[in-house]
Target: RraA family protein
Amino acid sequence: MNHPLMKQLSFFSTVFLFLLFSTSLRAQSVALPKESITGFTAQWKGERFPDGRPKVPDNILERMKDVSLENAWSVVRGAGYNNQFAGDWQMIHPDQVMVGRALTAQYMPKRPDVEDKLIANGKKEGRIGGTNSWPIDMLSTGDIYVADAYGKIADGTLIGDNLGNSIYAKSKNGVVFDGAVRDLEGLSKIEGFNAFVRGFHPSFIAETMLTGVNVPIQIGPATVLPGDIVLAKKGGILFVPAHLAETVVQTSEVITLRDEFGHMRLKEGKYTPGQIDTRWSKEIEADFAKWLDANPGKLKMTRAQMDELLKTRTW
Model:
């Protein structure tokens, strides 16, 4: 069994059995089973929702709102996640930042035999209303409803203002749809709600079916897992893997502090641009540490956490 080929065959057998098990369970439910979500997001070691999604702490979500897309992208890409950004959105409130945990949904062009089976399974589970409302019923505070609607605009409107009000009541957040919404005027009146979509259209949803909830989905060029942290800003959306969320926040906060310190010292003329715009000398690092000691409220993590972060930095 120690032969490399046998190890490889064993690995593929394990993956096949996992997928077979997941498919068997999916046949009984529209939502991906908890065990499968946990398997896909195994690198997350913290608390989880009952549905299996990673539950990144609220304070990390709040701090993420101040993170720039550029800083977050650098950390995520540096960790080997090269397909997490999607741009070219239309927004209800372009200057309103949206951060939350992804609750994912997948839609496909309607096929009656498939849709009939999915609706029947949903009814057995006690789901009510149109299928586009089923993901909404599963939302929790801090979630963002993220849907792959294959870019459909006309007849691809997943929600209007009625469902928009329900979404905000449950999540205190908004939506990201690779598709469209209707009732723009009504949605824009929901205070705190935002939507990042491919377009707005007056039509009702038609010839589109829900095929999965809390499943891995594609949003533009990005792969999104349930529980990913959605960082949505005017410049686009970054889907941060849950296990990288705290690192993204802490790294961005340190970069911001170092920039503030560097700019201040440049204005004072204490250091030259060449000294600041490169790897700092021990003298500058010591000066920075003294500045932090004099301004303890600026650092939102422990000094030990910051020092550990600085050991592995590539910036």
Observations:
- The mean pLDDT is 91.
- The chain is about 40% helix and 15% strand.
- The two ends are 44 Å apart (CA to CA).
- The longest helix spans residues 245-268.
